[in-house]
Amino acid sequence: MNAQPVCLYCQQANPTDESECRQCGMPLPAEAALAGERRLRRFGWFCVGLTIFCIVMFFWLPRSIV
Ligand SMILES: [Zn+2]
């Protein structure tokens, strides 16, 4: 929970109590926005994994059971 908010404009890591970037003065993203972005990235990796799993299963499982 002590991850430093990174500026979206100059990638400068700022202390958590700062509301504006120390380097360029732009407002820092809120903690909720950071968490949402992280969750979105995790969901993206989940989709990639699911796609790979489906491709592997497509070739690994038998086409017909007769
Ligand atoms: Zn900045």
UniProtKB/TrEMBL annotation:
Q: Does the keyword Transmembrane apply?
A: yes
Cite the entry's keywords alphabetically: Membrane, Transmembrane, Transmembrane helix
Q: Enumerate the transmembrane spans.
A: 43-61
**The name this protein goes by in its record:** Protein DnrP
Q: What is the lineage of its organism?
A: Bacteria, Pseudomonadati, Pseudomonadota, Gammaproteobacteria, Pseudomonadales
